[in-house]
Amino acid sequence: MVAPAPEQKKSKRRRKVPRLDAFTDEELAAAAELVASEQINIRLLHEEEIDGVVDGEMYGNTLKAARSKMVFVPSQQGFVEETTLSKEELLEARSHELQRLHGFMAKLVRAFMDVFVFVCVWWWWW
Q: Which of 7, 34, 88, 95 has the fewest CB atoms below 10 angstroms from its CB?
């Protein structure tokens, strides 16, 4: 006697994003072309605003300088300029950054240990 196949449950959650296979290659190529033309339009717009060519290095340095003055404040759920924060908010922001870095370092250590065990087993087996 053969056991009946388990019933497939339909997901009640609806997809909000269309599946990629729903687009044809021509549609994807047209979308890529549109994105490329928009990038050119944005660059030209910025060049008109500054009366010159946008220098990638200058833009990168400016962005880096602007971001270096911004910190994430969890209570405000966003980035705020460091000079406008009170001592408590600055402490909160720095504590959040420390916790984030600690979590990142813990992930690195776990990944290293996984690789280390694999290499040791491989070396012993070889």
A: 7
Residues 98 and 121 in one domain: yes
Taken in order 63, 66, 71, 76, is the CA torsion positive or negative? negative
pTM of the model: 0.43
CB 54 within 8 A of CB 47: yes
What's the pLDDT tens digit per position in 11-70? 666 666 656 567 788 888 888 888 888 888 777 777 766 666 666 777 777 777 777 778
Q: Are 78 and 72 in contact (CB under 8 A)?
A: yes
Q: Domain check: are 39 and 83 in the same one? A: no
Residue 38's domain spans which residues?
A: 23-68
12: amino acid identity, one letter: K
Number of domains in the chain: 2
